[in-house]
Amino acid sequence: MNDLDQLLADAQADFQAATTPADLENAKARYLGKAGRLTELLKGLAALPHEAKKTRGAQINAAKQQVEAALQARRQALADAELEAQLQAESLDVTLPGRQRGTGGLHPVSRTMERIEAIFGSMGFEVADGPEIETDWYSFTALNNPENHPARSMQDTFYVDLKDAEGRWLNLRPHTSPMQVRHARAHAARYAGVDPMPEIRVIAPGRTYRVDSDATHSPMFHQCEGLWIGENVSFKDLKSVFLDFFRRFFETEALQLRFRPSFFPFTEPSAEVDIAFDSGPLKGRWLEVAGSGQVHPNVVRNFGLDPERHIGFAFGMGPDRLTMLRYGVNDLRLFFDGDLRFLSQFR
After folding, report:
1. Which of 1, 31, 114, 147 is the most buried if burial means most Cβ atoms within 10 Å?
2. For 41, which DSSP code?
């Protein structure tokens, strides 16, 4: 074995012994570096005769190419080994069950709102929507609430740092009753001069705001107001609508309805609405579920209608409370805490 064959064998052995890229670079320097064995052989060519220089130079260059080839092969082998180790460390067992995204679902209160709209829609009621930031006139004055009514105080109503054209502070609507007024006024304007004017049947579901928070109240809550105005609408129609609605909502005929005299500025006479189930965990217990009454003449006038001719009833109910009763939940705050462990039950 001549010296170049020995050099090549030594280089291949050193490269093969290198287990890291750094070790391989150190081995490379011993053969191809500035002071490497091949480099020293190339420097020694200067002392040879011309003919011998050509022959020896060709032999050294051939050996150098073989060393570089061995170096590159070992580099590739180390890179392949590193990749294989990484793949093993990050391996995925495709036989395991896949991780799927959980399917979402409607919030229970949203389910209730949709149910309310569907039931009243089948009775011929339209659905009205409107601003959640309201003027004093729509929130209170148009609804026959006097200037000194306690509902106007900061203890009950959220106000925003803006004023209407009359210089009154705007408020986050404390009920959806303003939509009754807006819808009725638009209806009266649309059918002005039409005799007889088509009846007004509308519900106004949506978010409302009051300074109140406990197990059965929330600063933000939902309300659904309703209005039926015509020339021959009576309390008999109110009872019929409520009885039909609650029996369909709770999916039971074993349900009783009663009216208790009450007071609301925007209706006269006024009544609280209670229901009682004939079976189940709430059997025989009267539960307050809505407020109602015949629309006050002053409010009818604010609708742009003649109270001597147009009569009807209005009502308001809390979808949040109905949701609690339907699903047997005793703390309203659970619906709005955002706990998926609770909400996922209703998917």
Report:
1. 31
2. H
C-alpha to C-alpha distance for 11 and 15, rounded to whole angstroms: 6
Q: Which CATH architecture does the domain made up of 108-346 adopt?
A: 2-Layer Sandwich (3.30)
Write 27-31 long-range contacts (CB < 8 A, 24+).
28/71, 31/7, 31/67
Considering the entire predicted model, what is its pTM? 0.69
57 in helix, strand or coil?
Answer: helix
- Among 219, 223, 2, CA closest to 109: 223
Q: CA-to-CA distance for 10 and 14, rounded, in angstroms?
A: 6
Hey, where are the domains in the chain?
3-89, 108-346
DSSP 101: P
pLDDT tens digits for range 280-321: 888 889 999 999 999 999 999 999 999 999 999 999 999 999
pLDDT at 45 exceeding the cut of 90: no
Helix (H) or strand (E) holding 19: none
